[in-house]
Amino acid sequence: xxxxxxxxxxxxxxxxxxxxxxxxxxxxxxxxxxxxxxxxxxxxxxxxx
Amino acid sequence: xxxxxxxxxxxxxxxxxxxxxxxxxxxxxxxxxxxxxxxxxxxxxxxxxxxxxxxxxxxxxxxxxxxxxxxxxxxxxxxxxxxxxxxxxxxxxxxxxxxxxxxxxxxxxxxxxxxxxxxxxxxxxxxxxxxxxxxxxxxxxxxxxxxxxxxxxxxxxxxxxxxxxxxxxxxxxxxxxxxxxxxxxxxxxxxxxxxxxxxxxxxxxxxxxxxxxxxxxxxx
Lengths: 49, 220
Known about the structure:
The complex is a heterodimer of chains A (49) and B (220). In chain A, 43% of the residues lie in helices and 12% in strands. Chain A has two helices and one strand; from the N terminus they run ααβ. Chain A is elongated. Chain B is built from nine helices and nine strands. In chain B, a hairpin with a 7-residue loop joins strand 8 and strand 9. In chain B, helix 1 runs parallel beside helix 4 (67-84). Chain B is elongated, with a radius of gyration of 20 Å.
């Protein structure tokens, strides 16, 4: 439950990937190569709908 | 400001990844354990990762489970990361930004002006909404400018003695403040010289030429 509340705070979505977030670490790293920004990786467990 | 808003405000400064656990036998749990995690369960964990995939830091467990803990950790780690992996050859700092009588003001900028120090102000744009085409174009142009003129080591060396400020026009308060300096869009590079009311616009100058201009106007 605690994790779910944090996910909601962070993402504002229960099941779908939040808008603007990458779905994989690899995707985030590829974007970071272009943008120069650090990659924030949040590992989360979500029940399938 | 509410804690989760503090987290949201920081998200444009990172490439955020929501990495869903791929089961107890998947690859994510071993990865978290290799990088400072302690749990064999799929718990919420947060990491800052460099573009080469190496882990820069991991959010302590106690902080990762609350928005206020996460935002304070994230803010500190972004600062540390940007110092270690600067996006430009210049070591820009973000000027402080306060609201005075409802208007944005920067005491560090004003102090540098009072102390008659030359200031190089770079206005970039780090992010844009998915539907904001104009802002997205600015993000692209800013990145190109950073990779070009602002990656020149010669130019950065020539900026010794300057006060170097960078603002992000994606930040509402900074964008408001930028307007008071005549900056409407990114990228802009302005040189504020002591005693001169109007800045010198170096936005169109290339790397080698930028070094020349900075030497020409810079402190002896």
